[in-house]
Each structure stands twice: as C-alpha cells, then as structure tokens.
C-alpha cells in the first residue's frame, strides 16, 4: 500500500472483471438441524474477486481525487493570471484576475426627456459605440445601447424614461463589496449646497 500511495497511479492497473456473487445460507431442517442444502461455499476465487474489486475501486478513487486536485489548481491559475486562457472565476475579494469591471462613468449635464436619443455628458472617455450602458437617477433606471459617441455627447436608443441633470451613465452600475464578497447596485445621490457670503 505504501508504494502505491506515494507513487503515480497508472490508469492501466490490473483489472479483474468483478462478478457479483449471490450469497446463500445453508438450508437446514428447523426440527433436526440437518443441512438439507449447502449455502455458498467461500472459495479463494470469490475472496480474490472481492479483494480485486475493492483494490481497483480504491485506486480509482485515489486517481480521481488527484485529477480533481489538478483541475482545481488549473482553474485557480486560469482565474488569477492575467491573459491566461481557459476558465475563470471572480471571488469578489479584490484580488486581480482576468475579469476587470468596466468603470466608465459620466454625468448627464442636461436633463433629457422621454424618447430622447442625445445625451449631453461631462465626459465620453471610456465609452464606445455599439456597447450597452446603464442610465439611472434616483427615480429611473434603464439599459440602452450607444449608437454614436461625439466629443461631449453620445447618441443612444430612444429612452423610456426622463432623466435629471446629474443622472449617471455607466458601463456598469455595480459596486463590488470585497468585505462580504458580493455585488451591489451603485447609488445615485443628490447633495444640498448652501452658499454663504463671506465678508
């Protein structure tokens, strides 16, 4: 067993066909105790069949566990190494991986009515035509596709809602909470500013 546990397990190990044995007890006379018919005799063939069945199953489970461990390591590497190909995972703990949240965000600098298709924005940096954005304020939210990006505006599909000056246009309105490893929805906030005359 020790040699088997420490070395690499080949997949072509000896496999004897496993034949299930239907075991039967002796048939006895309840009054005299006389054996009327003998039950299944335990032969070496049956014992070896059991041993090889257990041994092969044991070796298979060990090899399967090793393969699963290699796959877990590979998946973790694929998820953590930038530019790597294959599967990925983001555990939302702030660690770098090949997934990056598109944080392009800007403000609408002029209110827009229902059905509007032109958004005057503070910046168009990070935005491109034929990509989807989320527009939201404290009352409405919707996803639209940008059809054209100008110098200080962008054209979108006809809006289903009206939006105030200061509404947000974002590639993603997701906020990552690394403490709780979860995603939340970004907030739109208003601020009250009081002007005070200084003499």
Task: Characterize this entry briefly.
The protein has helices at residues 2-6, 44-80, and strands at 27-28, 35-37, 105-107, 118-120, 132-136, 141-149, 153-156, 168-170, 174-177, 182-185. By secondary structure, the protein is α+β, with helices and mostly antiparallel strands.
Task: Provide an overview of this structure.
The protein has 199 residues and is α+β, with helices and mostly antiparallel strands. It has two domains: 2-80, no CATH class; 105-185. Helix content is 21%, strand content 20%. It has helices at residues 2-6, 44-80, and strands at residues 27-28, 35-37, 105-107, 118-120, 132-136, 141-149, 153-156, 168-170, 174-177, 182-185. The strands form three sheets. A six-stranded antiparallel sheet has the order 3-8-5-6-7-4, with no helix packed on it. Strands 1-2 form a two-stranded antiparallel ribbon. It has a two-stranded antiparallel ribbon with strand order 9-10. It is rod-shaped.
Main features:
20% strand, single chain, 2 helices, two-stranded antiparallel ribbon, rod-shaped, alpha+beta
